Amino acid sequence: MSDYVASIRSRIGNDLLLLPGVTAVIRHGDRFLLARHRHSGLWSLIGGGVEPAEEPAEALAREVSEETGARIRIRGIVGAYGGPHLMTTYPNGDRVGYVTTAYDCELLDEPKPALEELLELGWFPRGAIKNLPRHRWIDRVIDDAHG
C-alpha cells in the first residue's frame, strides 16, 4: 500500500476508495503475458496504481519493472475500464474500485517474476486464458487488444 493510500485509509477506514490504475497488455504473437498474484492466486494482466504526480505511462513502466524486472515500450492505448468487475475487497476488509487504462506494450527485456508479489508469470494464447482462474475483467481487455 502506498503512503498516499495509507493516509486516506487512516481517515476512511475500509470504506470504498476509487483509485486510478494502469494495465499492461503485453503479447508476443498470439500469446499474452499474465501474472499470478500471491494475494489472490488469480491470473491477471500486469499493472497497478498511479501515484500522486505520476504520469500514467511512468506508473505503468514502474509497475511492470517492479513485477517482472523488465522494461516496456508503450505502443498505444487499448481502452479504459472500470465498474463492478474492477471492485474488490482485500483480506483486511479494504474496499477498492479501480478505473484502469490498459496500454498495448512491447516487452524490451526477458521477464523474471518478483516473487514477493507474484507466484509466477506465464505466456498464454487467448483461448487458454478463459480456462485459467483469473480476474474476469481481463477478458474484455484481451478481447479489445486482440481486436
Describe the structure.
This protein has 147 residues and is an alpha+beta fold. Helices cover 25% and strands 40% of the residues.
**Class derived from helix and strand content:** alpha+beta
Largest β-sheet summary: 8 strands, mixed
Number of strands: 8
* Mean pLDDT across residues: 94
Q: Helix amount, in percent?
A: 25-40%
Report the end-to-end length measured between terminal Cα atoms: 34 Å
What is the approximate shape?
A: globular
User: Element order, helices and strands?
Assistant: HEEEEHEEEEHH
Q: Measured on Cα atoms, how large is the radius of gyration?
A: 15 Å
Portion in strands = 35-45%
Q: What is the overall number of helices?
A: 4
Unreliable stretches covering 5 or more consecutive residues: none
Can you give keywords for this protein?
single chain; 147 residues; alpha+beta; 25% helix
Task: Give a brief outline of the structure.
By secondary structure, the chain is α+β, with helices and mostly antiparallel strands.
Q: Secondary-structure blueprint of this entry?
A:
Elements: H1 3-12, E1 17-28, E2 31-37, E3 43-44, E4 46-49, H2 56-68, E5 72-81, E6 87-89, E7 95-107, E8 118-125, H3 126-129, H4 137-146
Parallel strand pairs: 1-7
Antiparallel strand pairs: 1-2, 1-4, 2-3, 2-8, 5-7, 6-7
